[in-house]
Amino acid sequence: MGTLVTLHLPPDSPLADEPWVITIAAQGSVPDDEDDWEPVVCGPYERDHALALARAVVSDDDLMAVVEPMLPLDSPAAIRAAIEEARAPAGEDFPPRPAGQHPGPPPEPAEVRAGWRRIAAGILGM
């Protein structure tokens, strides 16, 4: 069984509504010939879709999936502001949550494509 790593968001976090990406990589910390491959980054997805897809991929393989928000920032100033915010000490600590508590089965491809349309509409302000 692999590992799923993600942010534990407080209730009503605005990050939950952002697009999310999945990075899949070999789980071991010391690469060998067999595990010497570049991580696969995929998305964007809605958060629940990203968590369910990542969990399905790592559930039966020795892989690590990192599920994180993708911030659609539109300028260097906005990126710098996000960096400064990330550097600031966190105000709350949320304990880890087992991957089994994340959304159920992975979405069907049509559901993922519908999520992409919602993400695009949100980014474009439609």
Architecture overview:
The protein is an alpha+beta fold. The chain has one domain (3-95). It is built from three helices and four strands; from the N terminus they run βββαβαα. It has helices at 47-58, 76-87, 109-124; strands at 3-6, 20-26, 40-45, 63-69. It has a four-stranded mixed sheet with strand order 1-4-2-3. The radius of gyration is 16 Å and the shape is globular.
Task: Set out the fold topology.
Layout: E1 3-6, E2 20-26, E3 40-45, H1 47-58, E4 63-69, H2 76-87, H3 109-124
Parallel strand pairs: 1-4
Antiparallel strand pairs: 2-3, 2-4
Region (Disordered): 83-113
What is the average per-residue confidence, as pLDDT, rounded to a whole number? 84
Helix content: 25-40%
Quickly give the structural class: alpha+beta
Q: Tell me the radius of gyration.
A: 16 Å
Shape: globular
Major sheet description? 4 strands, mixed
First and last CA, distance: 40 Å
Instruction: Tell me the count of domains.
Output: 1
* Beta-strand share of residues: 15-25%
Neighbour order of strands in the largest sheet: 1-4-2-3
Order of helices and strands: EEEHEHH
Which parts are unreliable, with pLDDT below 50 for 5 consecutive residues or more? none
Q: How many helices in DSSP terms?
A: 3
Number of strands: 4
